[in-house]
C-alpha cells in the first residue's frame, strides 16, 4: 500500500507539473488509464488514484463516456489547490505569484489597521524594537527577512481574523520567497525601511487609518519591486 501511494504521488507531481508548465493545456484530453499505466509502469489502480487526487485538487475533470480532461484550475480550483501549488518543490507559474502578491496587499492593509486598534503598550514596544532591529541590520538580508516576517505575523495575530491568519500561514513559503528576492537588492532595503518607521509612528499614535494607508503604500512598493525581479527569472521554485 505504501509503495502504491508513493507511486501515485509521483504521478500526481508529474502530471501537475506538466499542467503548470503548459505542456498540458486546459481542454487537452488525458491519455486512457491503460496507456498511462504502461507509460508509468504501474497498475491501473495506481493511475486511478492519481487521477482522483488531481481531479479533487481541480486539475482534471472526468466526463462520463468522454474521458478525462485538463480542467481550468485557475477558474474552478479550491484553496487546497492553491496551498498545494505554493507548498510544492516544483516550478511555479509567475502569474500565480504575482496574483498572490495582490491578495496579500489587500488583506494585509486591512489587518494592519485592525491590529493598530487592538495594540497595547507591550505590542507597540515590540513593534518598535523589531523596526529598530531592521534598521540596525539593514545590511543583513537574512535578518531582514526574519524580522519582516515577524512584524507581519504580529499584525496578523493582533488583527484577530482567524481566516486571514490561516491564509497568511498558508502563504508562508511564497511570502519567504518574496522576502528573500526583495531584500537581496540594497535599493529595496533603503526604500522600504522608512515605510516601516512611518507605520510604527502611526501605531504609536493609535492612528489606524494612517497605519493602514502606510501599510498599503509599503506593500505597493514591495509588490512592484518584487514583480520586476520575478519577471526577469526564467524559472521559479519556491523551495
UniProtKB/TrEMBL annotation:
Keywords: DNA-binding, Transcription, Transcription regulation
Pfam families, per database record: FCD, GntR
InterPro entries hit by this protein: GntR_C (IPR011711), TF_FadR/GntR_C (IPR008920), Tscrpt_reg_HTH_GntR (IPR000524), WH-like_DNA-bd_sf (IPR036388), WH_DNA-bd_sf (IPR036390)
Signal peptide: none
Keyword Transcription regulation tagged: yes
Domain HTH gntR-type: 5-73
Cited SMART domains: FCD, HTH_GNTR
SUPFAM superfamilies from the UniProt entry: GntR ligand-binding domain-like (SSF48008), Winged helix' DNA-binding domain (SSF46785)
Keyword DNA-binding carried by entry: yes
GO molecular function list: DNA binding; DNA-binding transcription factor activity
Protein name (record): Transcriptional regulator, gntr family
Species name: hydrocarbon metagenome
Amino acid at each position: 500500500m505504501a509503495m502504491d501511494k508513493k507511486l501515485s504521488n509521483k504521478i500526481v507531481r508529474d502530471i501537475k507539473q506538466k499542467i503548470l508548465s503548459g505542456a498540458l493545456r486546459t481542454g487537452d484530453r488525458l491519455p486512457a488509464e491503460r496507456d498511462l499505466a504502461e507509460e508509468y509502469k504501474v497498475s491501473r489502480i495506481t493511475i486511478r488514484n492519481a487521477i482522483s487526487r488531481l481531479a479533487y485538487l481541480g486539475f482534471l475533470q472526468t466526463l462520463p463516456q468522454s474521458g478525462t480532461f485538463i480542467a481550468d484550475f485557475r477558474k474552478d480550483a479550491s484553496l487546497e489547490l492553491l496551498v498545494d501549488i505554493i507548498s510544492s518543490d516544483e516550478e511555479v507559474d509567475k502569474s500565480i505569484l504575482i496574483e498572490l502578491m495582490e491578495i496579500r496587499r489587500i488583506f494585509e492593509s486591512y489587518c494592519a489597521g485592525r491590529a493598530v486598534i487592538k495594540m497595547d503598550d507591550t505590542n507597540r514596544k515590540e513593534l518598535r524594537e523589531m523596526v529598530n532591529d531592521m534598521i540596525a541590520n539593514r545590511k543583513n538580508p537574512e535578518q531582514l527577512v526574519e524580522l519582516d516576517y515577524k512584524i507581519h505575523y504580529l499584525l496578523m495575530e493582533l488583527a484577530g481574523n482567524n481566516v486571514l491568519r490561516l491564509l497568511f500561514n498558508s502563504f508562508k513559503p511564497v511570502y519567504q520567497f518574496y522576502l528573500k528576492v526583495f531584500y537581496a537588492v540594497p535599493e529595496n532595503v533603503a526604500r522600504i525601511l522608512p515605510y516601516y518607521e512611518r507605520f510604527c509612528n502611526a501605531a504609536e499614535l493609535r492612528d489606524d487609518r494612517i497605519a493602514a494607508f502606510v501599510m498599503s503604500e509599503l506593500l505597493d512598493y514591495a509588490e512592484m519591486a518584487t514583480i520586476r525581479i520575478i519577471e526577469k527569472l526564467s524559472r521559479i521554485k519556491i523551495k
